[in-house]
Amino acid sequence: MAFPCSGCGLCCHHVDRSEVTLPLDRGDGICRYLDCVSNRCRIYTNRPLFCRIDDSFPLFAEKMTLSEFYRVNADVCNWLQNEHSAPTSMRIKLSEK
User: Fold this and answer.
1) In total, how many domains does the chain have?
2) Is residue 94 one of the residues assigned to a domain?
3) What is the pLDDT of residue 97?
4) Mean pLDDT of 42-53
5) Using CA atoms, how far apart are residues 37 and 64, in angstroms rounded to an integer?
6) Does 96 map to a domain?
7) Angle at CA 26, nearest 5°, toward 20 and 30?
8) Are 74 and 61 in contact (CB under 8 A)?
9) Which of 14, 69, 73, 84 has a CA between 20 and 30 Å from the CA of residue 20?
10) Is residue 11's pLDDT more than 80?
11) Residue 41 β-bridge partners
12) Whole-number average pLDDT of the chain
């Protein structure tokens, strides 16, 4: 199972909202590695660990389950999408398995 990212890019447009991602801010809240034309990461295969939800889970495994970790991340994604009136089709939907 992998986190079902919808690729909206809103997390990359708001790196200034977290101390963890703040070093990626190019000065306007947008990640310095985001290609704003394609809305894709220019360093995707070498992006930081905290940008890779599945790979970063072991850092939180003692504090929460994978399902809880996915839920926290989905809640943040969906909150950003709601704040920016993104289409509901972009919302993160987690299976209840």
Assistant:
1) 1
2) no
3) 55
4) 95
5) 36
6) no
7) 75
8) no
9) 84
10) yes
11) 34
12) 94
